[in-house]
Every structure is written in structure tokens, then in C-alpha cells.
Amino acid sequence: MKDDGLHGSERVPLVRPRVPASDELTSLLDSIWRSGRLTNDGPMLRRFEAALQKELGWDNVVATANGTMALQLACRALRLDGEVITSAFTFPATIQALRWNGLVPVLADVEPRWLTLDPASVAALITPRTCAIVAVHAFGHPADVTGLQTLASRHGLALVYDAAPAVGVRVDGVPVTAFGDASAVSFHATKVMHTVEGGAVCTPHDDAAEAVRRLRNFGLGEWGGAEEYGTNAKMNELQAAVGLSLLRTLDAEVAGRAQAAAVYRELLSNLPTIRFLWPSDAVSGNYAYAVARLRAGAAPLADKVHAVLGRHGIDSRRYFSHRYRGRGTLCPHPTPVADAAAEDVLCLPLWGDIPRRTLMRVAGLVAEAVS
Ligand SMILES: Cc1ncc(COP(=O)(O)O)c(C=O)c1O
């Protein structure tokens, strides 16, 4: 965390992506130029995928053009067909990836502490048409991996995780991506570790990994013909170089964000109108977002605080709305916890070396707005 930096009048973004050290990136780029390969499963991509194995917890890691494609291809590779129970509180990409596969998202409620899929709500929605559960590690907070696996195993369902914001998160020391049948992560520039745009699928199933490799490259088989209905979801060599470089600084980025998030919590959590989502003791979090829930009794305050910060040139995000509800999705039961979260969640500016004075300024304005 820096003590100097942004000045009072400068716009404060929601996140400032970490960038690779230029000498390191130059050396990786030199190696790409020498190889003569810019994309199509090149040597830099292979190095990146190998480096990700330990971080993600499986030997099968297939990098993709972005996290949305990773989720789309994971579901396709597992041959899902029918209804998929998923979270009513998530980024639209979760729902869109399912719809692009012709799957029917069935929205279940989330649990109140970390806003991740509630196994009890899922259990009430399982029917003979259900083929899978797609749970989200919302804001990087792990879903109930044990409860969901128990349900999936009992009913013979595939269990897929939209782990888009969860790189670097561990549950009892195990990478959160090492659970279920597959996880899809995002390496978008806003994430704790990125490739500008990018993503990856990791899975314990060799055949699913092979299928994702094929599907990301137009479904082309060994002899160059399209064996199945794929797409172009390849990650190129330059993206892989950025990823390789930033993977080395992931721990530093997470440590910086943890420190910064703790400052917000220290400055604001004595206010009865604010509650921060915070990792449990079993979880080593990645502090991907500073997620505040803002509410005075029954009245949500997130819109008000968002507007006040905006007037002072400070970006914040009202994740997530329910705009996709009803568009090809089913929501058979009420989802009161997700509905409340959609009203009162506000993400505050956070990145690894966010200046302390910026944190103080944001916290001061938030405190003023809610009191
Ligand atoms: C929960 C969730 N799923 C999917 C995505 C999509 O990832 P990408 O932007 O890499 O396509 C995001 C992006 O932020 C996300 O938060």
C-alpha cells in the first residue's frame, strides 16, 4: 500500500490493474519473437498452463480467451444438457454462458454471509430435468464446496464452479478451484491476476480437458477437420506472457489488497449501517473486491453512497443486478437473500498498491454518506 500517489482531484478507479515489470515482459516477448509463434497453442501458452497447475490444483489446465468462454466450454465439455441450478446473485456472464449452451438456468438463492449458492435452496429445485449445479465463488468467496458436492453426488449431477474472481483463494490450504468437476477462472484485467483478457478451465477429468482444448480451437481434431461444434476461444502468446509474469506477483497483489481491505474494515465496520464480506478462518481469501453491504434497517443505502462517491470522482460498483431474470431463466422459488444483496451491495475501490490516503478519503466519504 502506498502512502503517496493519487491526488485529491484525480479520479479514483474501482481497480488499477497490476502490470508486468517491463524488463521481464520484454524478455518474455523476445522469446515469443524468437519462437515465431504468436498464437495456436504455442510454447508460451504451454508454459503458462503448466505454471497454473499448482495454483489451480489440477494437472488439467486449459487457458482460454476469457472467463466467459472458459465457463461455456467447461459446460460443453461435460456434455451438460437440460436444467442447471445456479446462483440468483451473480455476474451476467454466468447465466449467459449457460444460455449460449442451450441450457436452462434455474436460479437458486444464496446464503447470507458470503452470498454464495445455498445448498438448501439448490436441493429444493432438483428435478429429473436437472443435469448440473453451477455454483459461483462470488467476489472470490468460496461457495460451500462440501455441501454442494454432497448434493451433486447424491443426485448424480455435475458440479461446475464459476470461479471467475477466485484465483489465489484457498479453503483449508486447498485451491478453491480443486473442487467439483470443473472450474472456470477469469484473467480479466480487473482480477487479482490477469492476462489483460483471458481465462482457464481446470478439471480432474482428462477427457473434459481434451474436449476444452478441441472446442477452444474450432473443434478441430488431430487431422485438422472439425470434429465438433467448437468456437475460437484461444489465448494468444502475448496474453500468456503477461499471465506468466503476473502469476509471480499474485501473492504480493493479494497481500496488498488484504492490507487495504483491512483498512476499510478498520475505519468503517464500527458503523451499524455497514458490513463487509470477509473470509472465514478456514479460507485464505484473495480480496478480489472490497464488498460492503450498506443498509439502515430495511432501507438499502448502496445507491446513495454510490452517487456520493461518484460526485467526488470515485468509482464504485453496484454488483449485481437481476436484469437477466426471466430471460430464458427459471426462478421457481423466491430468492430473498439474493434480492437483498442486489439492493445493498457496493464494491469500493481496491487494488494491490492503492494509496492509503485514497482508502481514507473513500472511507471518510462513505461514513459521511451513511450517517
Ligand atoms: C462471476 C463471474 N463470472 C464470469 C465472469 C466473466 O469473466 P470474463 O470477463 O473473463 O469473461 C466474471 C467477470 O468478472 C465474473 O465476475
From TrEMBL:
* Keywords assigned by UniProt, alphabetized: Aminotransferase, Pyridoxal phosphate, Transferase
| GO molecular function per UniProt | transaminase activity
Q: Where are the transmembrane segments?
A: none
- Alphabetical list of Gene3D superfamilies matching this protein: Type I PLP-dependent aspartate aminotransferase-like (Major domain)
Which Pfam families has this protein been placed in? DegT_DnrJ_EryC1
User: Does the record's keyword annotation contain Transferase?
Assistant: yes
Q: Which domain of life is it from?
A: Bacteria
- Per its UniProt record, what InterPro entries does this chain match? DegT/StrS_aminotransferase, PyrdxlP-dep_Trfase, PyrdxlP-dep_Trfase_major
Tell me the protein family, please: Belongs to the DegT/DnrJ/EryC1 family.
* Protein's name according to its UniProt entry: DegT/DnrJ/EryC1/StrS family aminotransferase
At the highest ranks, the source species' classification is:
Bacteria, Bacillati, Actinomycetota, Actinomycetes, Kitasatosporales
